[in-house]
Amino acid sequence: xxxxxxxxxxxxxxxxxxxxxxxxxxxxxxxxxxxxxxxxxxxxxxxxxxxxxxxxxxxxxxxxxxxxxxxxxxxxxxxxxxxxxxxxxxxxxxxxxxxxxxxxxxxxxxxxxxxxxxxxxxxxxxxxxxxxxxxxxxxxxxxxxxxxxxxxxxxxxxxxxxxxxxxxxxxxxxxxxxxxxxxxxxxxxxxxxxxxxxxxxxxxxxxxxxxxxxxxxxxxxxxxxxxxxxxxxxxxxxxxxxxxxxxxxxxxxxxxxxxxxxxxxxxxxxxxx
Length: 273
Known about the structure:
Layout: H1 11-19, E1 27-31, E2 34-45, E3 53-55, E4 60-61, H2 63-67, E5 70-73, E6 83-91, E7 94-101, H3 106-116, E8 122-137, E9 140-157, H4 172-175, H5 184-210, H6 231-266
Helix pairs in contact: 1-3, 5-6
């Protein structure tokens, strides 16, 4: 945003930072067969920022952004992206993002090194306002509240407009699940699959009852004559049972991770504090 302060390093210092191998406090993630350092930031929050505005997280549309989640330095979209946002999550009135640096340009390598050594730790979102109005907010009168916005990009910056938009310490294991956050859409899809398999399980259960077959194999399979055991249906039944069990485990893990994430984000520790 226009309020961000630009602090550029002299050219003679760039070589030093590009050659730096400092990578402390960075998690690693397997991106297309290559392990890269990943970093987690608060991208935005519902505080009154330095421009006197508030961006409501629930009203921040990230749909288009997720199709092209590029990351710039200081909102400079005229230059090549310095990396990409791997995942974003809305939680506790904050937008949390995990990113990586592509290190394909001098600027990307320089900014990554500055983040690694702790000299840069801020982010800033670029957004398009759709609906807003003046309201009283947290005891302050006439605060401009952005109720509906569209996220366009999110940059690494020297000083951000939102005071909360800083790097988060040791939160990557909660943000990423196999490299991706399970979004609400994916969670719905997972539950739909679970419902279909449950329906299939019930149908096969009813079939076994109709033909008088036991629901489980006897303790000694030799007690049942082979001709009374329709193997194809039994194998399919066992397969669906295993799939349902696996999906139940995934849903349980998802609920536990979401609970842990919510608890952790409330008490996150910012670098340098």
